[in-house]
Amino acid sequence: MLGCGVVGSEVAARLQSRAEALEERIGAPLVLTAVVVRDPDKERPGVDASVLTTDAEAAIDGADIVIELMGGIEPAKTLITRALAQGSSVVTANKALLAAAYGELMAAADDSEVRLEHEAAVAGAIPIIRPVGDSLAGDRIDRIMGIVNGTTNYILDQMDSQGWDFDAALASAQELGYAEADPTADIGGHDAAAKAAILSSLAFHAPVTIDDVHVEGITGITAEMVETAKDQGFVIKLLAVCERVTDSPAGAGLSARVYPALLPRTHPLASVHGAFNAVFVEAEAAGSLMFYGQGAGGAPTASAVLGDVVSVARRKVLGGRGQYERPFHPERRVLPISAITTRYHITLDVVDRPGVLAAVSEVFADEGASIELMRQTIGEVDDEGIQHAKLVLATHENTDAALSRTVDRLGDLDVVRAVASVIRAEGQ
Ligand SMILES: NC(=O)c1ccc[n+]([C@@H]2O[C@H](COP(=O)([O-])OP(=O)(O)OC[C@H]3O[C@@H](n4cnc5c(N)ncnc54)[C@H](O)[C@@H]3O)[C@@H](O)[C@H]2O)c1
Ligand SMILES: N[C@@H](CCO)C(=O)O
Ligand code: NA
């Protein structure tokens, strides 16, 4: 095992405390031969001190299974590659690495006829990698929409249920240990984007990396946006969307994107509260499936790691081997967000006078975009004595490019004092 932090220490402790049960399931004992750490003198309750070492290469050589829980790109990538090349199967929770080099690492595993398992890398304890890669392998997955970051779901949920502003909700997430010390990867959407890249690669058999994923985080979500959404029967969630696109202005392909979006409060994902994760999968024959549970934390993540270890060990004992499939369809393109069909909810601060709606409608008509719903509420009287109004416009589906141009042009209108907020809507 490489790394013994939050997840690694739970895995090591459970390998010891559940040794008998694991042996029953596998048909052979699992022996933890080495745990690679930075400081072998540190006290680690539940971990046998005699297996601690700083020599990663010696630890890997000859191991049947290598469990990588160090995180980060290097040295994890070099060590995993070494392990696969020598014929060890690898179990990892490293979403950052897989989102950067999924195709390359899977091909290396396939070349050596060993397995590279990674259930813990997406949505922690929730079984989602095996269902998408294995259970649904006989079906055609069309769309995956998930809440795959616990920190941001906690923040948005507190803003929705307690009326907190963003900063208060983030401070609370940090206090509770959900957010990282530097929460940028969580709130910027990058952690969710890594998971979207892995899910897209697996569901659509194409080598999708994190650089292909369109990412928007939640730092721009205000208490007012949450309140407006609530008034209209929506909740704001940070969604990872992976989609098979058959037709778009840019042709057929895939879409992988992460952004905060409105969901109807009746949608199954709307009832995912706190730091929980959930993934909604739509497949041709299976229809809609929902996977729900704890997406982070030492013990839940260790559950997924140990499941992979048992699966690999069983195959080893039975003489089975090999990868799910050889990757992939390199010709499948990830389309730019501009070509993707979405809906917007646009909130405008306008001057309340005749002709405002005509001017707004003209921009929509001109861009070929259409308004599904409009709501006007009375606003404030400003310093110059001018009465303002708040206009909330929900659009029909259109390309993101057309909607984005519409917003730019609305912002240029004389009667529009400010584009107060723009957010996409999903799940309708
Ligand atoms: N914590 C979670 O909830 C969670 C959930 C899902 C996936 N993961 C993933 O699991 C992996 C581990 O996460 P964690 O939360 O346990 O992190 P962590 O920081 O608690 O643990 C990583 C450990 O690896 C050690 N390490 C790093 N580089 C090393 C090196 N070169 N040699 C020896 N030791 C080294 C660190 O000292 C640390 O103790 C990461 O890839 C993470 O993304 C974590
Ligand atoms: N920081 C991540 C950890 C799990 O990957 C989260 O909040 O979901
Ligand atoms: Na998982």
Automatic annotation (TrEMBL):
NADP(+) binds at L2, G3, C4, G5, V6, V7, G8, S9. L-homoserine binds at E180. Pfam families: ACT, Homoserine_dh, NAD_binding_3. SUPFAM superfamilies: ACT-like (SSF55021), Glyceraldehyde-3-phosphate dehydrogenase-like, C-terminal domain (SSF55347), NAD(P)-binding Rossmann-fold domains (SSF51735). Keywords: Amino-acid biosynthesis, Methionine biosynthesis, NADP, Oxidoreductase, Sodium, Threonine biosynthesis. The active site is at K195 (proton donor). Belongs to the homoserine dehydrogenase family. Catalyzes the conversion of L-aspartate-beta-semialdehyde (L-Asa) to L-homoserine (L-Hse), the third step in the biosynthesis of threonine and methionine from aspartate. This is Homoserine dehydrogenase. Its EC number is 1.1.1.3. Pathway: Amino-acid biosynthesis; L-methionine biosynthesis via de novo pathway; L-homoserine from L-aspartate: step 3/3; Amino-acid biosynthesis; L-threonine biosynthesis; L-threonine from L-aspartate: step 3/5.
